[in-house]
Specification:
It is a single chain. The chain has 340 residues and is of the alpha/beta class. It contains 9 helices and 18 strands.
Length: 340
Amino acid sequence: MFRKKILLIYTGGTVGMRQDKDGALKPIDFANLKHDLPEIEKLSCEIHFHSFDVPIDSSNMRPQNWIDLAILIEKNYYHFDGFVILHGSDTLAYTASALSFLLEHLHKPVILTGAQLSLGILRSDARENIIAAIEIASNPLYSLPEVCIYFGSKLYRGNRTTKISSESFNAFDSPNYPTLVNVGVHMDFQLRHWLKANISNELKVHKRVCTDVALFKYFPGVPLYWVESALLHPNIKGIVIETFGAGNLPNHQDFLNIIDKSLQQGKILVNITQCLRGKVIQGRYDTSKQLLKMGVISGHDMTTEAALTKLMFILAQVDSIDAVKLIMQSDIRGELTQPY
């Protein structure tokens, strides 16, 4: 009987942590992780293991780690049927979003998961998350062609997901897109929501991102000097701006002058909402009409994580400002609901 081959990649994070003598949680080596999960031997697939040489807390994740993961998948792509990445939950959505852009023409499942409690704790959610993620990745009938996050009995599209709780086992949500798999007594595969793989194209792995980007969250009373430092810094090429409601910012002229100057300097400004659900509709209110006229890009219904990593990805691949603007507003990996 054919058994799918899965590569289980351990990066670090709570899922494999132990308390040190001072009570702080620190990553352990992968050998202990396997020891604490004997159920893995009962799965009907062939599992191989790979661990980061030095497991890291997800708060220490950097863009180079995203690229390292993409390269690791590229090297093993034709040797395995799917990939499960064990990752700390704090930056899980950033890594999943970044990988979705770095892995172009993906035909196989790449599922990231983690835990709120480590495997060594009796009530840990790690067991269910890891086992279910491997089961989905190795499903004999369906091969999921995208980067996903599995957490709390649900499989989400990676670049549609954000962390919403530091305490609940249901720590993640996909605010503007349905779940891909719901797990209970049975696995409910929502195939109509999956990306469609183009099997005529081979995997293309991108190995560069641009880190000259900024995230600016507007709040009432923000000092203008702070706005200037964020939007006019000479090294910054792109800024994701978290705005109110449907994409609104104050229409005070001194504030708009800074935005206009930033755009005149050739910077890319992407407007996303601070709301968990919903989308940016520039021009719906007078307070966003001027942004539309000046050339601020609507991020529509992208998450902060998706908008930021997509901007980092595109700025590394494309030189033309017009091309960057066009791609940022286009759906390239299922990260936004095409508004047109």
